[in-house]
């Protein structure tokens, strides 16, 4: 038998600081414990000694020195390695966090600081009614990001109070509730697919969401345009290296907020991180579509992505149209919504699902791979040679283009055959100048071959451009996405074609806008205000009849068609290289870009990737591709874990399918993105 003195010698004093939300000062509690006491027992002793009747279920122990949570309550202090010198804090796991959304609106809600960021973002998206939470993440911007706004506020005569949507009662606690990323095929539509207003049953459907208490559409409508002065203050001319620094702030999805040094009530950015927007559906995704539109809009206005002046005017016209519709009182008047019978809506949705697409063409698509054949002009840039296009007979079949001197020689040997799998396809178009060009950057052993094709008219361009885009992804024109791609390109060209628009009616009703609000500050400086307004109104004639949600989707599609869309940049040093390069990461490829000129050097497709890993000691990412191609690089503008997670995240997202009704495989995500650290 042990005497009481022997027991006392085996025990020791542990000081725990209690982070009590109702107390101004934190209190230190001293407990007498032994190494075989489990974590749950320590918390029980704490609660008994504090002696305050309240719900302590959300509290857990945080170990300051080790920067980790002690969440395994059955583990003993000895197993955790906790000794008398340990600084433990008894604190709530859920704390307030301020999130700036893509539409620049700030929401304040209670978020788990103890679960991994991947799950925390899923809970946040559930509270905000955003499906497909795996496409978003949290970004911690550089210290200058929010300071810039404060300087602007000081110059104003009246102090600006930030408009914060407070969702303090938000149920972001993880649980078995329905994942926001997936839905049943028979789920009742929750938004009107035409104008994005909530359907009659939406308030009941999302009754557990804090948005239902205030207004569940508050995040589904775009914000009024910023003033030109505010835009100018936010605008910064950024090089590729500057853009690379912005992307260093993505949080690690496999660790908790607390483990990454995030403080209570800190401000972070909630953004779409992965540019693969799966299954966008106006019936369910009014908030998601609006936030995507806003992220695209700000990327255009702040020139985070390059576009031509012609494209800038199209984006401006769509913004003007969306702004007008969003302010319309008819759209925001929900009282006139007709009641929708939930069972009827579910049955009609199921009927559409069962009917499927065009079944009669399926066999033909499988057996017959279509081809394109036509006269196009070709140019290969060489030093000291003027840009002269030469006409050839082109034949596009499978994923390759072959060209011949004329049509009669088609059965013989081609002048050259270009394999487009893995190439970069860049539009080179000026509709007003009747220029319809396609720029191809084809990967070869020592870099990229540059080839320019020139089409004669819109229809020819749309067919060949769509075929090139699909071929670059390894798909043929037999793929079901070919015709939609052709139509998408044609509709975008039609928006650009100002000649087809009827003459703009002169009148005050057409001048109710500040044109500088809808274009980037650099573009605004090039034109007089009246001239810019006239150009926007002229372009607006092509989109004036579009409903609100369709206009937002068209804006997103136009954004997706830009050459630089979906590229996230990082500053890296490739193994064996003496200079720094930019690495561009997209949903399907990696691009090595010259940091000085911005010209792509080499492209590697994810489909050709065999394996990738990280040497955590020297922080180097190594990737192996088919045909014995291997690359390795160290990251200079961010931790290599950020880049590693980006690559793994895109591969994870490529495994999603529309038939998936179960929750996402979170373990697979962490396996692909976590590395072996």
UniProtKB/TrEMBL annotation:
CC per GO annotation: cell periphery; cell projection; cytosol; focal adhesion
GO annotation terms (biological process): basement membrane organization; cell-matrix adhesion; establishment of epithelial cell polarity; integrin-mediated signaling pathway; keratinocyte migration; keratinocyte proliferation; negative regulation of canonical Wnt signaling pathway; negative regulation of gene expression
Entries under SUPFAM superfamilies matching the protein: PH domain-like, Second domain of FERM
Keywords recorded for this protein, A-Z: Cell adhesion, Cell junction, Cell projection
Gene3D superfamilies, sorted: Phosphatidylinositol 3-kinase Catalytic Subunit, Chain A, domain 1, Pleckstrin-homology domain (PH domain)/Phosphotyrosine-binding domain (PTB)
InterPro entries, per the entry: Band_41_domain, FERM_2, FERM_central, Kindlin/fermitin, Kindlin_2_N, PH-like_dom_sf, PH_domain, PH_Kindlin/fermitin
Subcellular location: Cell junction; Cell projection
Domain PH: 377-473
GO molecular function: actin filament binding; integrin binding
Family recorded in the similarity comment: Belongs to the kindlin family.
Protein name: Fermitin family-like protein 1
Source organism of this protein record: Bos mutus
């Amino acid at each position: 038998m042990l005497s009481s003195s022997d027991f006392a010698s085996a025990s020791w004093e542990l000081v725990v600081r209690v982070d009590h939300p109702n107390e101004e000062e934190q209190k230190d509690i001293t407990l007498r414990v032994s190494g075989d006491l489990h974590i749950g027992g320590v918390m029980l002793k704490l609660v008994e000694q504090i002696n305050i009747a309240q719900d302590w279920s959300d509290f857990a122990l945080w170990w300051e020195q080790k920067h980790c949570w002690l969440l395994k309550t059955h583990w003993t202090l000895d197993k955790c390695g906790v000794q008398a010198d340990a600084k433990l804090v008894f604190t709530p796991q859920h704390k307030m966090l301020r999130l700036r959304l893509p539409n620049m609106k700030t929401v304040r809600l209670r978020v788990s600081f103890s679960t991994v960021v991947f799950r925390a973002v899923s809970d946040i998206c559930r509270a905000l009614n955003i499906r497909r939470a795996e496409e978003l993440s949290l970004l911690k911007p550089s210290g200058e990001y929010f300071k810039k706004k404060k300087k602007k506020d000081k110059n104003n005569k009246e102090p600006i109070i930030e408009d914060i949507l407070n969702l303090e009662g938000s149920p972001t606690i993880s649980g078995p509730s329905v994942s926001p990323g997936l839905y049943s095929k028979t789920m009742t539509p929750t938004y009107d697919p035409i104008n994005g207003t909530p359907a009659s049953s939406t308030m009941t459907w999302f009754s557990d969401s804090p948005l239902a208490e205030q207004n569940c559409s508050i995040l589904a409508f775009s914000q009024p345009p910023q003033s030109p002065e505010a835009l100018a203050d936010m605008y910064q001319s950024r090089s590729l290296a500057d853009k690379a620094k912005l992307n260093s702030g993505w949080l690690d999805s496999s660790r908790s907020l607390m483990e990454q040094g995030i403080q209570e009530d800190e401000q972070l950015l909630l953004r779409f991180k992965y540019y693969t927007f799966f299954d966008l559906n106006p019936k369910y995704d009014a908030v998601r579509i609006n936030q995507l539109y806003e992220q695209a809009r700000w990327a255009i206005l702040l020139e985070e992505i390059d576009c031509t002046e012609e494209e800038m005017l199209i984006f401006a016209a769509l913004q003007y149209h969306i702004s007008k519709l969003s302010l319309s009182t008819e759209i925001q008047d929900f009282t006139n919504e007709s009641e929708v019978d939930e069972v009827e809506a579910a049955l009609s949705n199921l009927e559409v699902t069962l009917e499927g697409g065009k079944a009669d063409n399926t066999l033909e698509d499988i057996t017959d791979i279509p081809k394109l054949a036509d006269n196009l002009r070709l140019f290969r840039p060489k030093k000291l040679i003027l840009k002269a296009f030469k006409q050839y007979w082109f034949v596009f079949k499978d994923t390759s283009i072959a060209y011949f001197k004329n049509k009669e020689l088609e059965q013989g040997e081609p002048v050259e055959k270009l394999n487009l799998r893995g190439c970069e396809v860049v539009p080179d178009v000026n509709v007003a100048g009747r220029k319809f060009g396609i720029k191809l950057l084809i990967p070869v052993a020592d870099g990229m071959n540059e080839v320019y094709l020139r089409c004669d008219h819109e229809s020819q361009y749309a067919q060949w451009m769509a075929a090139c885009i699909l071929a670059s992804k390894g798909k043929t024109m037999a793929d079901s996405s070919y015709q939609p791609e052709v139509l998408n390109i044609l509709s975008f060209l039609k928006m650009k074609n100002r000649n087809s628009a009827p003459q703009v009616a002169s009148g005050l009703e057409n001048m109710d806008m500040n044109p500088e609000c809808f274009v980037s500050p650099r573009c605004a400086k090039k034109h007089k205000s009246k001239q810019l307004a006239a150009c926007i109104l002229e372009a607006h004639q092509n989109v004036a009849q579009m409903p609100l949600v369709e206009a937002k989707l068209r804006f997103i599609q136009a954004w997706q068609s830009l050459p630089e869309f979906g590229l996230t940049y990082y500053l890296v040093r490739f193994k064996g290289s003496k200079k720094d390069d930019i690495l561009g990461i997209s949903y399907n490829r990696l691009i090595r870009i010259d940091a000085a000129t911005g010209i792509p050097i080499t492209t590697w497709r994810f489909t050709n990737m065999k394996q990738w890993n990280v040497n955590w000691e020297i922080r180097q990412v190594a990737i192996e591709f088919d045909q014995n191609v291997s690359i390795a690089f160290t990251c200079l503008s961010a931790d290599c874990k950020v880049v590693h997670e980006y690559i793994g995240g895109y591969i994870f997202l490529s495994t999603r399918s529309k038939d998936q009704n179960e929750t996402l495989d979170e373990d697979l995500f962490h396996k692909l993105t976590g590395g072996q650290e």
